[in-house]
Batch of 2 targets.
Target 1
Amino acid sequence: MSILFEPVRLGELELANRIVMAPMTRSRADARAVPTDEMVEYYRQRASAGLIVAEGTAPSANGLGYCRTPAIYSEEQIDAWGQVTRAVHEAGGRIVLQLMHVGRAASRHNKPADALTVAPSAVRARTQLFSDAAGLVDTDAPQALALADVALVIEEYRRAALNAREAGFDGVELHCTSGYLPMQFMASGSNLRDDRYGGSTENRVRFPAEVLAAMATAIGAGRVGFRMCPGNAYNDISDADPVATAAALCAAVEPLGLAYLHIMRSPLAELDAFALAHQHCSAGLILNDGFDGASAAAALDAGQGEAVSFARHFIANPDLVERLRHGLPLSGFDRKTLYTPGPRGYSDYPNGTQAMA
Ligand SMILES: Cc1cc2nc3c(=O)[nH]c(=O)nc-3n(C[C@H](O)[C@H](O)[C@H](O)COP(=O)(O)O)c2cc1C
């Protein structure tokens, strides 16, 4: 049997197999950032994954910024997420929630009218994003977080981790890449602060390290993971030394004993992110980016990590685990419906046996 189908333990998380569903923003929440019935069905269909990492979810209204993305700060949001986790657990799966505060990668069109766009420094991301109200728009100019307000954002994350547990999630994953708030703090191009959260590499990783510590204290380190992609320039990120930054975050959180590091390949050819993670992090590794069944099994056989995550293959293959187990063909997905509302191109992809019937 392939190593992919062997169980594995990551902190307190017991995975029935080593095939993880990577987080994917699919813009199916409602206008109040509440998960919808389609989302319950979509995640239920994918519960055979050893672990689902549910899509990037805002810890607070200020953390929203994309179209129809979910959050987990209101009772209504917690209750609706509870339906998702119940469906996944009843189907025998495990599910953690990715906490994603977009910081400056935001448009006011995609968040409540009184919500703010905040960042470590008042440096706008030179990028655009989609809004239902105004189409493609520039990101907002952010306001720099005052020192006292950094503590409030850390508290928002801590509260969100508790809310996630209340909603039945098995744990949480901190999104520390793709140019969102933690990476805005980590990268030298977007963090121009001269207080304890800016300047040296150790200071720039302090924010995500304190968020992770707060979440670990709240729900237990064995239920907290984090995601990194060293050298990722998405959302106008630049960092003078991505290797040093990633290594510093690993070192800062090492004493916490977190459940896992979800490590993505670096877009920089010379940077081996998996080797870097191995060198600096003793938590279990979930490897990501561009894997198929054969390459995933080879990476685990070679001892590169404990599990592999798949994103795009899960879009049109809800039963990806069964398809990989039996060598069934994988279906391709429709790009046009990636972020459109409703079940089409989302929760209506058939299982392999149905697809062949
Ligand atoms: C539609 C879509 C939405 C995504 N949304 C997120 C997200 O919310 N959070 C995140 O960390 N990564 C997100 N990603 C990145 C994926 O988790 C994954 O890292 C990437 O697709 C590479 O893995 P793959 O080759 O298995 O698809 C998204 C990717 C896609 C295709």
Target 2
Amino acid sequence: MNDMPANDMITPRPNDLDAFWMPFSSNRTYKSTPRLLARAEGMYYYTHDGHEVIDGTAGLWCVNAGHGRREITEAIQKQAAIMDFAPTFNIGHPIAFAAAAKVAEMTPPGLDRVFFTNSGSESADTALKIALAYQRARGQAQRVRLVGRERGYHGVGFGGMSVGGIGPNRKQFGAMLPYVDHLPHTHLPAHNAFTRGQPDHGAHLADALENLVALHGDTIAAVMVEPLAGSTGVLVPPKGYLNRLRELCDKHGILLIYDEVITGFGRIGTPFGAERLGVAPDIMTMAKGLTNAAVPMGAVAASEEVYRTIVEGAPAGIELFHGYTYSGHPLASAAAIASVDLHKSDDLAGRAMAMEGYFEDGAHSLNGLPNVIDIRNMGLVAGIELQPRVGKPTDRAMKIFHRCFDAGVLIRTTGDIIALSPPLIVERKHVDRIFETIGDAIRAEAA
Ligand SMILES: Cc1ncc(COP(=O)(O)O)c(C=O)c1O
């Protein structure tokens, strides 16, 4: 370790693996057979020992414009030389305002009040707090209840974890937030398996909100859902489902929050999922693609009505007692501006839409391989669900993950589901290689 030059960023070597307590990982398994990504460019990672690996997951659903975009790197470098940091509590710096205005150019019309955070988790908790503050500001302080959905993922803060619906993410951590309830998830394989795009069946599942209103009366502040659920293993919303949810929220005075941390920034073929799915929320979270993941940053976009109700309804002084030291951090702001500019100049959402059919065909070409029990997709997202090995859940998917990596393709697995989300610059030759490699790995793990 000591013989490694401090600036050796090109070929870092594995050193002591003990200190880093890895997030959402099997530290023991990983550290016994480490695989290291040391460099990245365009569609590719390169391992510490020089192997090329196609990025089938845009890192972690985040490097939507492809790796190492010069425009973003240079913007960060330039800003670091101008000013490293300045606070945004009752003082400001120009680039945070410029970044918010730039983000508002990309968000759906009407969602243009932008609150900066540092991650998707912080965005989820911020959105929930804004919803509660809004209800209180409009004289509905009894609306303290938050509704999520089974299998939803909203990060790992106490708000997002509680409103989220993924059992293993909750069970180690005690009591959760009070006053939280959940809608049923939308996974109906008996009706919808192997659907391309939005499934026909399942809009009625939104009606469960009526049941929650019957139970809780006018105490619900907000419903938060991912427009297309990613981390749980890709659940595409049934046709009409989000429309129904929107109608019921309006009927009952409930805010609709979309967690667009994955679906934002072109992932499903439009700048945000709201546009592709044709239903707008009142509040929207984002992160990941916001800076192309070059610097951590998240944001919440709120409607004018939400912003005005809170800000203009407050007594003089601070209007929302919430914020982060790094809200609107100058380096992240620089990266966000450059990232949004790239989305526009390269029409990344349009590229995703244009590639969707080819990518969909690639995904569904795996239909019929051993143990493939469902394939779901929209935009440049695909989920391939595998039959788990008896008594050994996740084993098959993990072995396929390792086989693919060793064959030069990075995939992601969640449970026994393969989730794919390549950078939006993906080309046909990459798509071919991704699905050929996965197909080979599925066959090799048929037993
Ligand atoms: C929909 C959604 N919300 C929130 C998060 C959490 O984001 P972060 O890991 O940046 O906190 C994620 C991460 O995958 C996500 O997919």
